[in-house]
Amino acid sequence: MRDGPVSSGDLFVFYGLLKQGASGMPAHIDRDAAGEFLGPCRFKGTMYDLGGFPGVVDGDTLCHGVAYRLDHERLALALDQFEDVIPGDPENSLYRRVKVPLLDDAGKETGEKAWIYWYNQPVDGFTERQDGNWPLDAGRARKHG
After folding, report:
1. pLDDT higher than 50, residue 145
2. Are the C-beta atoms of 59 and 25 separated by less than 8 Å?
């Protein structure tokens, strides 16, 4: 499912600037008031350093993320805007919101699925993060449209 409706109680997995304590995180999005960080999780993909923020595309690396339960669905619009998800224009969206299975540290599915912001542009020329883990201090604020 891509960019579908979000409901209160849905899980998200954050792997970059939206992680708790990440440098470059958006100050205008109050994640603590609209949900709860549940702790570390894993997912499969290939993570790239896009110049101060990460992007994940299809791949087999066991990547690191933080699970988050969204308690107020209205926050989803702000998250989509931060990630430059353009409604009705998937080709020009920087990210797409998709559902992925959450995994444990061994790479086995936990039975839960979560929304994740999947990078939606070419990754040519960007450096792959071999460990699939974006450091909290590596980010910088992105400009938004």
Report:
1. no
2. no
